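Exercise: predict the fold of this chain.
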Amino acid sequence: MLLVVPLVIEMATGPRVWSDVAELTGGCALLAALVALRRRAPLGVLAAAAATATVAEVALAPAASSPARVWPFAATALFAYLAGRRVDAGRPVLAVLAAVAAAGLPVGLLIGLVSGVRAAGFGLVVAVYDWLALALVLLLVAAPPWLLGRYVRQRATLVAAGWERAALLERQQQLEAERARLAERARIAQDMHDSLGHEWTLIALRAAALEVSPHLDEETRTAAGELRAGVAAATEHLRDVIGVLQPDTGPGERADVAALVERAAAAGMAVDLEAGPEPPDLLPLVRRAAYRIVQEALTNAAKHAPGAPVAVRIEHGGGTTAVTVTNGAAGTSAAATDRRTGGSGLPALRERVRLAGGTLRAGPDGDGFTVHATLPHEGTPAEPSAAPDAPAPELERARGEVRRSVAAGVRVPLLAAATVAALGLALFLLAGTANRLDPAAFDRLPTGVDRATAMAVLPPFQVVGDPGRTLAPPPRGARCRYYWSSEPTDERLIFRLCFADDRLVAKEAVPRAALSGPVPREGAP
């Protein structure tokens, strides 16, 4: 309600005009309603405020430019800022302002027609000029606050995204720590398998030799048998512990691709295996990687392309092992979409292949899907791929969209303001080239001459605007025309000629001081 304080001060210090009372009452009620609806309907509130400013500019100008009557424009600026804060897209806000500005032209024409301020075709020129000025005022009043609100909103969004990214990085660090822990468990399991398992096997062999030795008595051989049984039991326990620590193939599961394919076929999958002879010196790391590739590919095929034939091909040669798994077309397009977007099996598989020193390609192949991996037999880990940086293009694309949105939000109001200003200036210059009346011709026009005779002497255009608003009212029923003097002086700056019943009923030379005086106010007691 602070927006109407200047109007209250003017009413308290000046003459009491009942139109001011009505304006104050209606303005307070309107502002209260707009404030109550600002969160629920920001675009509607902005449209109502801009429409109020439009009516004030068209109906009350130049009184609307007084400090007491700037509240509609201040309200428009305030609600434009709030719209920038609460509306995601910029086009609806620009559409609202454009619609209100477009509606100002017929409103101005209607008010000019009802009030009878202008006569003949020049009233259309004045209405268009006033409308261009109104559109420019709306842009200057609403566009900067809206852009500021939009900037504040985007800044808040970026801050929230920054916190979200920080939380994501923290979760990623936790996942990295968990992965390192699992890797350490696998390393411990491998160490136990390589060292303790081997040593305990040797102990069991020696105990078995003592158990059948003919040089020992029965009691010693019995003790050796118990020792062998204990070592065998400890070996079994060790195998169970390794199965818990090592999550690759599960407890007691061997990396046997043939057995894996047999189980898949027994479950109803149409799978065909083509595998060459395995080199005797193939590293366990490569063997397990090949097993996991086939396992993950079969799992994906069963999930995303049920019933499709699957071909598994493993080739050894040239110091590398090539694993290729191809399945036919998926049953539905949704299944193919799920394969492209869901699950973490392929990223984990890609990391395993990298640790084995190989490369992995997975993607659509015609109507089906193919997973192909090349594993070197030396098993040297490759450098990390660019896969972790894959979201970078998406992030850059999002930033580009934000930049383009901000640029469009600034560019559209600037272009609109430049267009309106250019059109208004062109119209002003066009009218200004033919709106000057020669003082001698003004002096020769007698009062009472008919309109047709006077119009033959008068210029085709008038003064753009309405300088008569600061002058004394014309005779009752008369309509006045205003022209610049071709030889302007402080005493004869503008000529006013008033017509009634197609006759010139009054004429006067308007001095400069009269144009800068206060606007006459009607209705004061």
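Check your answer against the key: The chain has four domains: 2-166+401-432, 171-245, 257-389, 436-515.
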